[in-house]
């Protein structure tokens, strides 16, 4: 916070009200032209901290990664000038995909012509691992995405928590303007014990597993990389722990269609009386 250690009696901004800069640099100032890392950055009145989970607006036609990836590749090429094109293991160095992002991943998994589902909301969930400003004062975030259950490949009988998300190794650089709000992704043990202070229940999610880039293989997360502060001033504990159940299945058929399928006779032809009942259910 820029406080001199020689001050004998220091008063915080609450005891001694004064204007405080909420954009906190990480480390000393850097040389001209180098990006300055931050612990927190502001988007209007919204403060985004390192380790936070945020909502992102979905980019269906244009990925925000495209201009940033060009700048990143330019920096890599300039820093590797004079070096060979191959890496230490004899393979070509991997570059960030131009126009990539979560939308490209889903198109590769589900087909280029498949529409992007709006199930579970219109906002992506993103974990912020780093924040910085470039020499022009533009703000950027770096981190990884989370997938919702309907965005993965899994068995039709697999059950999820109603608010479960899954960590995916899809890392991306995005401008801070993409952030639409703050949310909280907790491990199951923390989720059952309480809530971070100020968290809205509709913005709290459970993450117990991670998936690979193909969104097909599931792995249990043993220890969260970004645990929340559970001190009394930052965490509201429940009187009794919750016991959530896995009851959500994005691949299950609606009960109306299940009843309709059971209305068939042994010869494979539908029973007219059962069909009338199904129509009444649909009308209701």
From TrEMBL:
Its main location: nucleus. It is found in: Nucleus. One of its GO terms (biological process) is regulation of DNA-templated transcription. Pfam families: BAH. Keywords: Nucleus. One of its GO terms (molecular function) is chromatin binding. Residues 106-222 form the BAH domain. Residues 89-98 have a biased composition (Acidic residues). InterPro entries: BAH_dom, BAH_sf. Residues 72-84 have a biased composition (Basic and acidic residues). It comes from the Eukaryota. One of its GO terms (cellular component) is nucleoplasm. Residues 64-114 are annotated as: Disordered. SMART domains: BAH (SM00439). This is BAH domain-containing protein. It comes from Amblyomma americanum.
């Amino acid at each position: 916070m820029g406080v001199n250690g020689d001050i004998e009696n220091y008063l915080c901004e609450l005891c001694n009200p004064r204007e405080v800069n909420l954009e906190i640099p990480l480390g000393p100032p850097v040389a001209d032209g180098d990006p300055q890392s931050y612990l927190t950055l502001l988007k209007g009145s919204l403060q985004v901290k390192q380790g936070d989970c945020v909502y992102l607006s979905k980019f269906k036609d244009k990925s925000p990664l495209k201009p940033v990836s060009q700048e990143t590749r330019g920096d890599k090429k300039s820093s590797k000038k004079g070096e060979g094109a191959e890496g230490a293991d004899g393979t070509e160095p991997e570059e960030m995909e131009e126009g990539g992002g979560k939308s490209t991943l889903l198109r590769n998994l589900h087909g280029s012509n498949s529409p992007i589902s709006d199930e579970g909301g219109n906002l992506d969930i993103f974990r912020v691992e780093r924040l910085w400003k470039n020499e022009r004062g533009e703000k950027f975030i770096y981190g990884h995405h989370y997938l919702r259950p309907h965005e993965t490949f899994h068995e039709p009988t697999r059950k999820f928590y109603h608010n479960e998300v899954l960590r995916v190794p899809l890392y991306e650089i995005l401008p801070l303007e993409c952030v639409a709000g703050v949310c909280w992704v907790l491990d199951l043990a923390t989720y059952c014990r309480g809530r971070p202070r100020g968290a809205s229940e509709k913005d709290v999610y459970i993450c117990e597993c991670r998936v690979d880039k193909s969104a097909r293989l599931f792995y249990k997360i043993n220890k969260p990389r970004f645990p929340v502060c559970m001190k009394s001033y930052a965490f509201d504990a429940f009187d009794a722990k919750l016991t959530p159940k896995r009851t959500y299945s994005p691949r299950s058929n609606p009960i109306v269609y299940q009843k309709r399928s059971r209305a068939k006779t042994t010869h494979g032809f539908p029973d007219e009386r059962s069909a009338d009942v199904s129509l009444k259910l649909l009308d209701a």
